[in-house]
Write a structure and sequence with these properties.
about 240 residues, alpha+beta, 4-stranded antiparallel β-sheet, two-stranded antiparallel ribbon
């Protein structure tokens, strides 16, 4: 189970770090349609820069710093992101320094005032809802795995106070004694996680579902992170049970 959780985290991290082959052509097309020439493109992982500036970005988007030049030879930087983990995604402008972007087919001047940028906007309550949904999914599967794993002989069929196995519950292949945390997780965990997931999903359906395509990977990341947290809490509860 621990290896599965670690594997899921590694896989998500690999998806975050990889470059999509369609990103650079999309950036070139974006600049060309606005009369700009791309000088350089650099991948960025500095999400804190945008958070500190009040720009809400998903920590799973692919960020790029693009240096461009206009027809007058002036250079500036555009910060762009692609909001898709499993595909090309849509190019979104996060910041533009001294640049007023024009519609495709026009020309841009780096000496004009900044006209504002399109931003990925996620409020904290929306992020919390997505995390809770992911944590509920992760918790549901974690409790199911414990229900199967804690069957005899992993746990005794008689109480063993010296090891902290004093709480009776029904595992998948028999009745056993385990820690208080294991008792709660196996007996009530699936129902609690299912209920919390249903309640938070109502907010998701009403407000978030149509907002961005980034929500599936946010939920997936939350599920992977929460399973690692549940596993850590479970291991600590075993160590503390005898005391």
């Amino acid at each position: 189970m621990f290896l599965i959780v670690c594997g899921a985290i590694v896989y998500v991290n690999w998806l975050l770090l990889r470059d999509c082959p369609t990103d650079r052509p999309a950036i070139d097309d974006f600049a060309e349609q606005r009369g700009l020439r791309v000088i350089s493109v650099a991948r960025s992982y500095n999400f804190f820069r945008y958070w500190l500036r009040g720009i809400s970005v998903d920590n799973a988007v692919r960020l790029y710093w693009v240096t461009v030049e206009d027809s007058e030879g002036n250079r500036s930087d555009i910060h762009v992101a692609f909001d898709s983990l499993f595909g090309p995604g849509q190019l979104v402008v996060l910041e533009q320094e001294g640049l007023a972007l024009t519609p495709p087919g026009g020309s841009a001047s780096l000496t004009q005032p900044d006209s504002g940028a399109t931003r990925l906007s996620w409020s904290w309550d929306e992020r919390l809802v997505l995390f809770v949904i992911g944590a509920s999914i992760g918790g549901f599967f974690f409790c199911g795995i414990l229900h199967d794993y804690l069957s005899p002989p992993k746990r005794p069929v008689f109480p063993e106070p010296a090891l902290g196995f004093t709480h009776f519950f029904k595992a998948k292949y028999g009745n056993v004694y385990g820690t208080f945390f294991e008792y709660l997780a196996v007996t009530y965990g699936p129902f609690v996680m299912w209920g919390v997931g249903l309640v938070t999903s109502a907010f998701f359906i009403l407000k978030i579902r149509q907002k961005s395509r980034t929500f599936p990977r946010q939920i997936l990341a939350a599920a992977a992170i929460s399973m690692a947290m549940y596993y850590a809490v479970w291991r600590v509860s075993i160590d503390l049970a005898p005391s």
